[in-house]
């Protein structure tokens, strides 16, 4: 019969290997969470900057729906005054494509959300945030949503002091009304 010392060394080695596997797994989970949160924050800033650039060149009138997927930035040319759900005053000034691939998180497009306080770029419905809340289920982004407040709350749309949503500064609605009236008078 073999002694306990015969099995002791293989058990120590197996326990050591298992320990390193668990540590590696936990590190991977933590980094994935961290990377996803930082990617969301970075993507939101990039999308805000692109949409501000489009507004400066083309003047964004509005968006079709209360929630609008951002899946049109890779468009080079289009007909009419609408690209995706976005309506433009000067579509002829479009400088697209602005990206090769529209950014997504977990294969879900980011979105422009319309609220009573303006337009915001947010992760799309169904995206799980680093705080484990899900957009559209735990965080409701309807017309009444106070996204400005959510951006400052780590339990909502903030991660490591970085906002996971951004306000779109499109100017006063009176400027848009001026353009719309100009088109009606010119017809």
Task: Give a quick precis of the structure.
By secondary structure, the protein is of the alpha+beta class. The chain is 40% helix and 18% strand.
Name the poorly predicted regions.
174-187
End-to-end CA span: 102 Å
What is the residue-averaged pLDDT?
87
User: What would you call the shape?
Assistant: elongated
Which structural class do you get from the secondary structure elements?
A: alpha+beta
User: What is the number of domains?
Assistant: 1
Topology pattern, helix = H, strand = E: HEEEEEEEEHEEEH
Largest sheet, spatial ordering of strands? 2-7-8-11
Characterize the quaternary organization of these chains: single chain
Q: How much strand content do the residues show?
A: 15-25%
**What gyration radius follows from the Cα positions, in whole Å?**
24 Å
Major β-sheet profile: 4 strands, antiparallel
Total helical segments: 3
What share of residues is helical? 25-40%
Number of strands: 11
Describe the structure.
There is one protein chain. With 187 residues, the chain is of the alpha+beta class. It has one domain. It is 40% helix and 18% strand. The protein has three helices and eleven strands, in the order αββββββββαβββα. The strands form four sheets. It has a four-stranded antiparallel β-sheet. It has a three-stranded antiparallel β-sheet with strand order 1-4-3. The longest helix is centred in the first third of the chain and has 55 residues, at 4-58. Residues 174-187 have low confidence and may be disordered.
